[in-house]
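To whoever picks this up:

The parser on our side crashed when reading a file containing two proteins. I've narrowed it down to the boundary between the first structure block and the second sequence. Both blocks are reproduced below exactly, byte for byte. First block:
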Amino acid sequence: MKRSQIKNEYAEEDPCLEENVENGEEMPIISVVVNPDSPQNINALSSNVPLFIKKLWIIVNDESNKEIISWNSSGDGFEMHDQLGFISQTLPKYFKHNQLSSFVRQLNLYGFHKSQSIERDEFQFTHPFFLKDVPQLLPLIKRKVPSGRSQSTKPTPNENSPHAPIVQELVGTIKNITDKSDAIATDMSKLRQENAALWREMNTLRLKYSKQTKIINKLIHFLIAYMQKHHNSRKGGRTSM
Protein backbone atom coordinates (compact mmCIF):
# COMPACT_ATOMS: atom_id res chain seq x y z
CA MET A 1 0.00 0.00 0.00
CA LYS A 2 1.37 3.44 -0.93
CA ARG A 3 1.65 6.03 1.81
CA SER A 4 -0.24 8.51 -0.37
CA GLN A 5 -3.31 6.26 -0.27
CA ILE A 6 -3.88 6.99 3.41
CA LYS A 7 -6.53 9.72 3.49
CA ASN A 8 -7.39 12.38 6.01
CA GLU A 9 -10.88 10.89 6.19
CA TYR A 10 -9.65 8.62 8.99
CA ALA A 11 -8.78 11.57 11.16
CA GLU A 12 -11.22 12.49 13.91
CA GLU A 13 -11.76 16.05 15.06
CA ASP A 14 -9.32 17.01 17.80
CA PRO A 15 -11.01 19.03 20.56
CA CYS A 16 -7.68 20.25 21.92
CA LEU A 17 -5.96 22.20 19.16
CA GLU A 18 -4.37 24.51 21.73
CA GLU A 19 -1.91 21.74 22.69
CA ASN A 20 1.57 22.37 24.03
CA VAL A 21 0.42 25.00 26.50
CA GLU A 22 3.15 26.03 28.88
CA ASN A 23 2.29 27.87 32.08
CA GLY A 24 -1.28 28.33 30.93
CA GLU A 25 -0.31 30.12 27.71
CA GLU A 26 -1.04 28.88 24.21
CA MET A 27 2.04 28.50 22.04
CA PRO A 28 1.79 30.73 18.94
CA ILE A 29 1.69 29.38 15.42
CA ILE A 30 5.10 30.01 13.89
CA SER A 31 5.61 32.04 10.77
CA VAL A 32 7.65 30.17 8.16
CA VAL A 33 7.90 31.07 4.48
CA VAL A 34 7.73 27.79 2.54
CA ASN A 35 6.28 26.18 -0.54
CA PRO A 36 2.51 25.70 0.03
CA ASP A 37 2.80 22.02 -0.89
CA SER A 38 5.88 21.30 1.21
CA PRO A 39 5.71 19.36 4.53
CA GLN A 40 7.01 22.50 6.29
CA ASN A 41 3.77 24.37 5.59
CA ILE A 42 1.77 24.31 8.84
CA ASN A 43 -1.40 25.34 7.01
CA ALA A 44 -1.12 22.37 4.64
CA LEU A 45 -1.56 19.94 7.52
CA SER A 46 -5.00 18.76 8.58
CA SER A 47 -6.82 21.01 11.03
CA ASN A 48 -7.30 17.88 13.15
CA VAL A 49 -3.57 17.69 13.88
CA PRO A 50 -2.65 19.01 17.37
CA LEU A 51 -0.61 22.21 17.27
CA PHE A 52 2.40 20.67 19.01
CA ILE A 53 2.47 17.80 16.50
CA LYS A 54 2.23 20.29 13.61
CA LYS A 55 5.26 22.16 14.92
CA LEU A 56 7.16 18.93 15.53
CA TRP A 57 6.46 17.80 11.96
CA ILE A 58 7.73 21.11 10.61
CA ILE A 59 10.87 21.04 12.78
CA VAL A 60 11.85 17.52 11.75
CA ASN A 61 11.19 18.14 8.04
CA ASP A 62 13.00 21.48 7.95
CA GLU A 63 16.31 20.89 6.10
CA SER A 64 17.91 23.81 7.96
CA ASN A 65 17.56 21.78 11.17
CA LYS A 66 19.08 18.53 9.85
CA GLU A 67 22.37 18.98 11.74
CA ILE A 68 20.38 19.34 14.98
CA ILE A 69 17.31 17.14 14.49
CA SER A 70 16.18 14.95 11.59
CA TRP A 71 14.42 11.74 10.60
CA ASN A 72 16.24 8.50 11.35
CA SER A 73 17.43 6.28 8.51
CA SER A 74 14.26 4.14 8.54
CA GLY A 75 11.87 7.11 8.64
CA ASP A 76 9.90 5.74 11.62
CA GLY A 77 11.21 8.28 14.12
CA PHE A 78 13.48 11.29 14.54
CA GLU A 79 16.91 11.75 16.11
CA MET A 80 18.22 14.68 18.15
CA HIS A 81 21.86 15.07 17.10
CA ASP A 82 22.74 18.27 18.96
CA GLN A 83 20.94 18.93 22.24
CA LEU A 84 22.69 22.26 22.88
CA GLY A 85 21.85 23.48 19.39
CA PHE A 86 18.25 22.33 19.81
CA ILE A 87 17.97 24.26 23.08
CA SER A 88 19.67 27.44 21.89
CA GLN A 89 18.44 27.62 18.28
CA THR A 90 15.47 25.39 17.49
CA LEU A 91 13.24 25.68 20.57
CA PRO A 92 13.26 29.52 20.74
CA LYS A 93 12.45 29.63 17.01
CA TYR A 94 9.25 27.60 17.33
CA PHE A 95 8.18 28.00 20.97
CA LYS A 96 8.08 30.60 23.73
CA HIS A 97 10.68 28.68 25.74
CA ASN A 98 13.98 26.85 25.41
CA GLN A 99 13.34 24.12 27.98
CA LEU A 100 14.25 20.68 26.63
CA SER A 101 12.48 19.04 29.56
CA SER A 102 9.18 20.72 28.58
CA PHE A 103 9.60 19.56 24.98
CA VAL A 104 10.31 15.97 26.04
CA ARG A 105 7.36 16.07 28.45
CA GLN A 106 5.07 17.02 25.56
CA LEU A 107 6.44 14.11 23.53
CA ASN A 108 5.68 11.76 26.41
CA LEU A 109 2.14 13.13 26.70
CA TYR A 110 1.58 12.29 23.03
CA GLY A 111 2.90 8.76 23.40
CA PHE A 112 6.36 9.07 21.83
CA HIS A 113 8.92 6.46 22.90
CA LYS A 114 12.45 7.60 23.76
CA SER A 115 15.60 5.56 23.16
CA GLN A 116 19.32 6.27 22.97
CA SER A 117 21.73 5.26 20.23
CA ILE A 118 24.53 2.90 21.28
CA GLU A 119 26.96 4.09 18.61
CA ARG A 120 26.32 7.81 19.15
CA ASP A 121 25.26 9.88 22.11
CA GLU A 122 21.93 10.79 20.51
CA PHE A 123 18.31 10.48 21.55
CA GLN A 124 15.68 8.97 19.26
CA PHE A 125 11.91 9.36 19.53
CA THR A 126 9.37 7.16 17.76
CA HIS A 127 5.60 6.99 17.43
CA PRO A 128 3.59 4.52 15.31
CA PHE A 129 1.77 7.42 13.61
CA PHE A 130 4.73 9.79 13.19
CA LEU A 131 6.28 8.52 9.94
CA LYS A 132 8.33 10.27 7.28
CA ASP A 133 6.28 11.38 4.24
CA VAL A 134 3.00 10.19 5.84
CA PRO A 135 1.35 13.32 7.31
CA GLN A 136 -2.05 11.64 6.82
CA LEU A 137 -1.45 9.68 10.05
CA LEU A 138 -0.76 12.76 12.19
CA PRO A 139 -4.43 13.26 13.21
CA LEU A 140 -4.27 9.85 14.93
CA ILE A 141 -1.67 11.16 17.40
CA LYS A 142 -3.61 12.15 20.49
CA ARG A 143 -2.65 13.51 23.87
CA LYS A 144 -2.85 10.85 26.57
CA VAL A 145 -6.15 10.94 28.46
CA PRO A 146 -5.69 11.00 32.27
CA SER A 147 -7.29 8.15 34.18
CA GLY A 148 -10.95 8.81 34.94
CA ARG A 149 -11.56 10.86 31.80
CA SER A 150 -13.71 9.67 28.94
CA GLN A 151 -12.03 7.57 26.28
CA SER A 152 -14.67 8.49 23.70
CA THR A 153 -12.23 10.67 21.74
CA LYS A 154 -10.04 7.71 20.76
CA PRO A 155 -9.54 7.96 16.97
CA THR A 156 -10.84 5.12 14.85
CA PRO A 157 -10.96 4.79 11.07
CA ASN A 158 -14.29 5.21 9.31
CA GLU A 159 -15.65 1.65 9.22
CA ASN A 160 -17.71 2.45 6.12
CA SER A 161 -14.65 3.48 4.13
CA PRO A 162 -13.33 0.95 1.58
CA HIS A 163 -9.81 1.64 2.88
CA ALA A 164 -10.66 0.92 6.54
CA PRO A 165 -9.34 -2.71 6.55
CA ILE A 166 -6.07 -1.57 4.96
CA VAL A 167 -5.63 1.22 7.50
CA GLN A 168 -6.43 -1.13 10.40
CA GLU A 169 -3.91 -3.64 9.09
CA LEU A 170 -1.32 -0.89 8.71
CA VAL A 171 -1.93 0.36 12.25
CA GLY A 172 -1.62 -3.19 13.60
CA THR A 173 1.63 -3.74 11.70
CA ILE A 174 3.09 -0.48 12.96
CA LYS A 175 2.12 -1.36 16.54
CA ASN A 176 3.80 -4.77 16.25
CA ILE A 177 6.97 -3.17 14.90
CA THR A 178 6.93 -0.60 17.70
CA ASP A 179 6.48 -3.29 20.35
CA LYS A 180 9.37 -5.28 18.91
CA SER A 181 11.53 -2.15 18.76
CA ASP A 182 10.77 -1.42 22.42
CA ALA A 183 11.70 -5.00 23.35
CA ILE A 184 14.98 -4.73 21.42
CA ALA A 185 15.75 -1.39 23.08
CA THR A 186 15.14 -2.98 26.50
CA ASP A 187 17.46 -5.89 25.69
CA MET A 188 20.13 -3.51 24.45
CA SER A 189 19.87 -1.48 27.65
CA LYS A 190 20.34 -4.65 29.71
CA LEU A 191 23.37 -5.60 27.61
CA ARG A 192 24.89 -2.16 28.16
CA GLN A 193 24.40 -2.52 31.91
CA GLU A 194 25.91 -6.01 31.93
CA ASN A 195 28.82 -4.82 29.81
CA ALA A 196 29.45 -1.93 32.22
CA ALA A 197 29.38 -4.37 35.17
CA LEU A 198 31.94 -6.62 33.42
CA TRP A 199 34.23 -3.68 32.81
CA ARG A 200 34.02 -2.65 36.46
CA GLU A 201 34.77 -6.20 37.58
CA MET A 202 37.70 -6.46 35.17
CA ASN A 203 39.08 -3.14 36.41
CA THR A 204 38.84 -4.35 40.02
CA LEU A 205 40.69 -7.57 39.15
CA ARG A 206 43.35 -5.59 37.32
CA LEU A 207 43.94 -3.42 40.39
CA LYS A 208 44.17 -6.51 42.62
CA TYR A 209 46.63 -8.12 40.20
CA SER A 210 48.75 -4.96 40.17
CA LYS A 211 48.88 -4.85 43.98
CA GLN A 212 49.75 -8.54 44.21
CA THR A 213 52.50 -8.11 41.61
CA LYS A 214 54.03 -5.29 43.64
CA ILE A 215 53.94 -7.40 46.81
CA ILE A 216 55.56 -10.37 45.03
CA ASN A 217 58.30 -8.13 43.62
CA LYS A 218 59.02 -6.73 47.07
CA LEU A 219 59.24 -10.26 48.50
CA ILE A 220 61.61 -11.33 45.71
CA HIS A 221 63.86 -8.32 46.31
CA PHE A 222 63.82 -8.98 50.04
CA LEU A 223 64.75 -12.65 49.56
CA ILE A 224 67.54 -11.78 47.12
CA ALA A 225 68.96 -9.19 49.52
CA TYR A 226 68.69 -11.60 52.43
CA MET A 227 70.40 -14.43 50.53
CA GLN A 228 73.22 -12.13 49.37
CA LYS A 229 73.76 -10.88 52.91
CA HIS A 230 73.74 -14.41 54.31
CA HIS A 231 76.13 -15.58 51.58
CA ASN A 232 78.53 -12.71 52.25
CA SER A 233 78.50 -13.34 56.00
CA ARG A 234 79.34 -17.01 55.50
CA LYS A 235 82.08 -16.15 53.03
CA GLY A 236 83.57 -13.67 55.48
CA GLY A 237 83.53 -16.27 58.27
CA ARG A 238 85.47 -18.76 56.18
CA THR A 239 88.10 -16.16 55.28
CA SER A 240 88.77 -15.33 58.94
CA MET A 241 89.40 -19.00 59.66
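<<boundary where parser fails>>
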Amino acid sequence: MKEELKTRKSVAIVTGIIIIGAIIIGALFLIPRARAKGTIVVTPLVDEETGKRVGKVAGGYPRVIIDGEDRGHVTDEGQLRISDLEPESHELIVVIPTYGEYRKIVSVKAGETKQVQLDVDMPNPEFRIGVEADVSVWHIPPDELADISVTLTNIGDIDSLGTSVLVLVYKEGDLSTPIATRIIDFGSLAPRQRAGQSWTKTWEGADFIYGPKEIIAVAVFDGYPFTPQNKEVLSRISVPQSKVEDLSNSMLSYLERHPEKVVNTTSKILLAWFG
Protein backbone atom coordinates (compact mmCIF):
# COMPACT_ATOMS: atom_id res chain seq x y z
CA MET A 1 0.00 0.00 0.00
CA LYS A 2 2.79 2.40 0.92
CA GLU A 3 4.64 1.56 -2.30
CA GLU A 4 1.48 2.28 -4.32
CA LEU A 5 1.01 5.68 -2.64
CA LYS A 6 4.65 6.56 -3.24
CA THR A 7 4.29 5.64 -6.92
CA ARG A 8 1.13 7.72 -7.30
CA LYS A 9 2.84 10.68 -5.60
CA SER A 10 5.81 10.46 -7.95
CA VAL A 11 3.53 10.32 -10.97
CA ALA A 12 1.62 13.37 -9.71
CA ILE A 13 4.85 15.33 -9.20
CA VAL A 14 6.11 14.47 -12.68
CA THR A 15 2.75 15.34 -14.19
CA GLY A 16 2.75 18.66 -12.34
CA ILE A 17 6.23 19.47 -13.58
CA ILE A 18 5.21 18.68 -17.16
CA ILE A 19 2.10 20.86 -16.88
CA ILE A 20 4.08 23.78 -15.41
CA GLY A 21 6.71 23.41 -18.13
CA ALA A 22 4.04 23.41 -20.80
CA ILE A 23 2.46 26.54 -19.31
CA ILE A 24 5.82 28.35 -19.27
CA ILE A 25 6.60 27.36 -22.87
CA GLY A 26 3.13 28.42 -23.96
CA ALA A 27 3.53 31.76 -22.20
CA LEU A 28 6.82 32.35 -24.00
CA PHE A 29 5.06 31.91 -27.33
CA LEU A 30 2.34 34.34 -26.27
CA ILE A 31 4.81 37.12 -25.25
CA PRO A 32 5.29 39.48 -28.23
CA ARG A 33 8.89 39.32 -29.45
CA ALA A 34 10.68 42.70 -29.75
CA ARG A 35 11.62 43.56 -33.34
CA ALA A 36 15.24 44.43 -34.03
CA LYS A 37 15.59 48.07 -34.98
CA GLY A 38 17.69 49.76 -37.63
CA THR A 39 20.13 52.68 -37.63
CA ILE A 40 20.79 55.44 -40.15
CA VAL A 41 24.10 57.30 -40.14
CA VAL A 42 24.16 60.57 -42.06
CA THR A 43 27.82 60.82 -43.01
CA PRO A 44 28.56 63.44 -44.08
CA LEU A 45 26.68 66.33 -45.67
CA VAL A 46 28.83 67.48 -48.60
CA ASP A 47 28.53 70.53 -50.84
CA GLU A 48 28.38 69.44 -54.49
CA GLU A 49 30.56 72.21 -55.95
CA THR A 50 33.33 72.49 -53.38
CA GLY A 51 33.32 69.02 -51.81
CA LYS A 52 33.38 70.66 -48.38
CA ARG A 53 31.47 69.18 -45.47
CA VAL A 54 28.41 71.13 -44.36
CA GLY A 55 28.43 71.52 -40.57
CA LYS A 56 27.49 74.72 -38.78
CA VAL A 57 26.34 77.47 -41.14
CA ALA A 58 25.37 81.10 -40.52
CA GLY A 59 21.87 80.16 -39.33
CA GLY A 60 22.93 77.27 -37.09
CA TYR A 61 23.36 73.53 -37.58
CA PRO A 62 21.45 71.50 -40.20
CA ARG A 63 18.74 69.43 -38.50
CA VAL A 64 17.61 65.94 -39.46
CA ILE A 65 13.90 65.08 -39.54
CA ILE A 66 12.82 61.42 -39.73
CA ASP A 67 9.14 60.81 -40.57
CA GLY A 68 8.24 64.26 -39.26
CA GLU A 69 10.20 63.91 -35.99
CA ASP A 70 13.21 66.12 -35.25
CA ARG A 71 16.08 63.74 -34.44
CA GLY A 72 18.77 66.35 -33.77
CA HIS A 73 21.42 68.28 -35.68
CA VAL A 74 24.57 67.21 -37.47
CA THR A 75 28.03 67.72 -36.01
CA ASP A 76 30.61 70.19 -37.28
CA GLU A 77 31.70 67.39 -39.62
CA GLY A 78 28.19 67.13 -41.08
CA GLN A 79 27.36 63.78 -39.45
CA LEU A 80 24.53 62.33 -37.33
CA ARG A 81 23.66 58.82 -36.08
CA ILE A 82 19.94 57.99 -35.74
CA SER A 83 19.14 54.71 -33.96
CA ASP A 84 16.01 52.79 -32.91
CA LEU A 85 14.30 52.97 -36.30
CA GLU A 86 11.64 50.53 -37.42
CA PRO A 87 12.79 48.21 -40.25
CA GLU A 88 10.96 49.95 -43.09
CA SER A 89 11.22 52.95 -45.40
CA HIS A 90 11.63 56.36 -43.77
CA GLU A 91 11.45 59.91 -45.09
CA LEU A 92 14.67 61.72 -44.19
CA ILE A 93 14.69 65.51 -44.41
CA VAL A 94 17.77 67.65 -43.80
CA VAL A 95 16.86 71.25 -42.99
CA ILE A 96 19.73 73.70 -43.52
CA PRO A 97 18.91 77.00 -41.74
CA THR A 98 18.20 79.89 -44.14
CA TYR A 99 19.19 77.73 -47.14
CA GLY A 100 16.46 75.14 -47.64
CA GLU A 101 15.85 71.43 -47.18
CA TYR A 102 16.77 68.16 -48.84
CA ARG A 103 14.58 65.01 -48.84
CA LYS A 104 15.43 61.37 -49.33
CA ILE A 105 13.60 58.06 -48.81
CA VAL A 106 15.80 55.59 -46.92
CA SER A 107 14.94 51.92 -46.33
CA VAL A 108 16.55 50.17 -43.38
CA LYS A 109 16.39 46.48 -42.38
CA ALA A 110 16.22 44.98 -38.90
CA GLY A 111 19.62 45.20 -37.25
CA GLU A 112 21.07 47.14 -40.18
CA THR A 113 23.21 50.26 -39.93
CA LYS A 114 22.84 52.18 -43.18
CA GLN A 115 25.27 54.89 -44.24
CA VAL A 116 23.55 57.77 -46.03
CA GLN A 117 25.60 60.48 -47.74
CA LEU A 118 23.78 63.57 -48.96
CA ASP A 119 25.27 65.91 -51.55
CA VAL A 120 23.70 69.34 -51.18
CA ASP A 121 24.00 72.34 -53.45
CA MET A 122 24.91 75.18 -51.14
CA PRO A 123 24.23 78.66 -52.53
CA ASN A 124 27.28 80.79 -53.20
CA PRO A 125 28.28 84.20 -54.55
CA GLU A 126 29.32 84.43 -58.19
CA PHE A 127 31.07 87.40 -59.72
CA ARG A 128 30.99 89.40 -62.92
CA ILE A 129 34.01 91.69 -63.41
CA GLY A 130 34.56 94.85 -65.39
CA VAL A 131 37.80 96.83 -65.60
CA GLU A 132 38.75 100.19 -67.13
CA ALA A 133 42.00 102.14 -67.34
CA ASP A 134 41.97 105.93 -67.68
CA VAL A 135 45.29 107.49 -68.64
CA SER A 136 43.93 110.92 -69.58
CA VAL A 137 44.53 112.43 -66.12
CA TRP A 138 48.03 111.06 -65.68
CA HIS A 139 49.45 110.98 -69.21
CA ILE A 140 52.24 113.50 -68.57
CA PRO A 141 55.65 112.19 -69.69
CA PRO A 142 57.91 110.90 -68.30
CA ASP A 143 55.43 109.58 -65.71
CA GLU A 144 53.01 107.08 -67.19
CA LEU A 145 50.17 106.41 -64.76
CA ALA A 146 46.53 105.40 -64.95
CA ASP A 147 43.41 105.20 -62.85
CA ILE A 148 42.29 101.57 -62.92
CA SER A 149 38.65 100.99 -61.99
CA VAL A 150 37.32 97.53 -61.15
CA THR A 151 33.58 96.85 -61.08
CA LEU A 152 32.20 93.77 -59.33
CA THR A 153 28.67 92.40 -59.57
CA ASN A 154 27.53 89.51 -57.39
CA ILE A 155 25.27 87.48 -59.67
CA GLY A 156 25.07 84.60 -57.18
CA ASP A 157 22.48 83.64 -54.58
CA ILE A 158 24.03 84.86 -51.35
CA ASP A 159 26.14 87.68 -49.91
CA SER A 160 29.85 87.42 -50.56
CA LEU A 161 32.25 87.56 -47.63
CA GLY A 162 35.54 89.44 -47.39
CA THR A 163 35.68 89.92 -51.15
CA SER A 164 38.80 91.47 -52.62
CA VAL A 165 40.55 91.70 -55.98
CA LEU A 166 44.21 91.47 -56.87
CA VAL A 167 45.11 93.71 -59.82
CA LEU A 168 48.29 93.03 -61.80
CA VAL A 169 49.54 95.28 -64.62
CA TYR A 170 51.74 93.77 -67.34
CA LYS A 171 53.35 95.45 -70.34
CA GLU A 172 53.14 93.85 -73.74
CA GLY A 173 56.81 93.01 -74.04
CA ASP A 174 57.10 91.20 -70.71
CA LEU A 175 54.28 88.90 -69.64
CA SER A 176 56.37 87.20 -66.97
CA THR A 177 56.54 89.96 -64.35
CA PRO A 178 53.89 92.56 -63.46
CA ILE A 179 55.02 96.20 -63.38
CA ALA A 180 52.45 97.07 -60.69
CA THR A 181 50.19 95.21 -58.23
CA ARG A 182 47.42 96.21 -55.85
CA ILE A 183 44.82 94.48 -53.65
CA ILE A 184 41.47 96.27 -53.53
CA ASP A 185 39.06 95.37 -50.73
CA PHE A 186 35.35 95.19 -51.59
CA GLY A 187 34.01 93.67 -48.36
CA SER A 188 30.62 91.97 -48.45
CA LEU A 189 28.60 92.28 -51.67
CA ALA A 190 24.88 91.53 -51.73
CA PRO A 191 23.44 89.67 -54.73
CA ARG A 192 22.41 91.95 -57.58
CA GLN A 193 18.85 90.60 -57.53
CA ARG A 194 18.51 91.99 -54.01
CA ALA A 195 20.86 94.98 -54.04
CA GLY A 196 20.07 96.08 -57.58
CA GLN A 197 23.58 97.40 -58.13
CA SER A 198 27.24 96.78 -58.84
CA TRP A 199 30.25 98.15 -56.96
CA THR A 200 33.19 100.04 -58.45
CA LYS A 201 36.50 100.90 -56.79
CA THR A 202 39.43 102.75 -58.34
CA TRP A 203 43.18 102.38 -57.99
CA GLU A 204 44.44 105.89 -58.66
CA GLY A 205 47.87 106.51 -60.13
CA ALA A 206 48.79 102.96 -61.04
CA ASP A 207 52.05 102.46 -62.94
CA PHE A 208 51.05 102.18 -66.56
CA ILE A 209 53.75 102.43 -69.24
CA TYR A 210 51.51 103.72 -71.98
CA GLY A 211 52.81 103.19 -75.48
CA PRO A 212 53.15 99.47 -75.75
CA LYS A 213 49.93 97.70 -74.91
CA GLU A 214 49.22 97.02 -71.24
CA ILE A 215 47.35 94.05 -69.88
CA ILE A 216 45.48 94.17 -66.61
CA ALA A 217 44.88 90.85 -64.88
CA VAL A 218 42.31 90.73 -62.08
CA ALA A 219 41.76 87.85 -59.65
CA VAL A 220 38.74 87.88 -57.37
CA PHE A 221 39.00 86.32 -53.91
CA ASP A 222 36.08 85.52 -51.64
CA GLY A 223 35.86 84.20 -48.08
CA TYR A 224 32.41 82.58 -48.14
CA PRO A 225 33.08 78.92 -47.25
CA PHE A 226 31.21 77.46 -50.23
CA THR A 227 32.58 79.74 -52.95
CA PRO A 228 33.94 77.35 -55.62
CA GLN A 229 37.60 77.50 -56.57
CA ASN A 230 37.77 78.70 -60.16
CA LYS A 231 41.37 79.32 -61.20
CA GLU A 232 41.07 77.80 -64.64
CA VAL A 233 38.15 79.80 -66.03
CA LEU A 234 39.34 83.02 -67.67
CA SER A 235 37.27 85.91 -68.93
CA ARG A 236 39.06 88.21 -71.34
CA ILE A 237 38.55 91.61 -72.92
CA SER A 238 40.39 92.11 -76.24
CA VAL A 239 43.25 89.83 -75.18
CA PRO A 240 44.51 87.74 -78.12
CA GLN A 241 44.04 84.02 -77.56
CA SER A 242 47.76 83.52 -78.20
CA LYS A 243 48.54 85.58 -75.08
CA VAL A 244 46.00 83.98 -72.74
CA GLU A 245 47.99 80.90 -71.74
CA ASP A 246 51.17 82.87 -71.01
CA LEU A 247 49.23 85.45 -69.01
CA SER A 248 47.24 82.94 -67.01
CA ASN A 249 50.39 80.94 -66.21
CA SER A 250 52.17 84.14 -65.15
CA MET A 251 49.33 85.18 -62.87
CA LEU A 252 48.94 81.76 -61.27
CA SER A 253 52.71 81.61 -60.79
CA TYR A 254 52.58 85.02 -59.11
CA LEU A 255 49.85 83.80 -56.75
CA GLU A 256 51.91 80.73 -55.85
CA ARG A 257 54.96 82.89 -55.11
CA HIS A 258 52.94 85.35 -53.03
CA PRO A 259 50.56 83.26 -50.89
CA GLU A 260 50.09 86.23 -48.56
CA LYS A 261 48.10 87.92 -51.32
CA VAL A 262 45.75 84.96 -51.76
CA VAL A 263 43.60 85.93 -48.81
CA ASN A 264 40.64 83.69 -49.70
CA THR A 265 39.34 81.35 -52.39
CA THR A 266 40.22 82.38 -55.95
CA SER A 267 36.82 82.76 -57.56
CA LYS A 268 37.38 84.40 -60.93
CA ILE A 269 40.19 85.68 -63.17
CA LEU A 270 39.84 88.41 -65.79
CA LEU A 271 42.34 89.56 -68.40
CA ALA A 272 41.89 92.93 -70.14
CA TRP A 273 44.05 94.48 -72.90
CA PHE A 274 44.58 98.24 -73.16
CA GLY A 275 46.55 100.66 -75.32
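After patching the parser it read the second block fine. Residues 127-274 form a domain with the Immunoglobulin-like fold (CATH 2.60.40.10). DSSP finds three helices and 15 strands in the chain.
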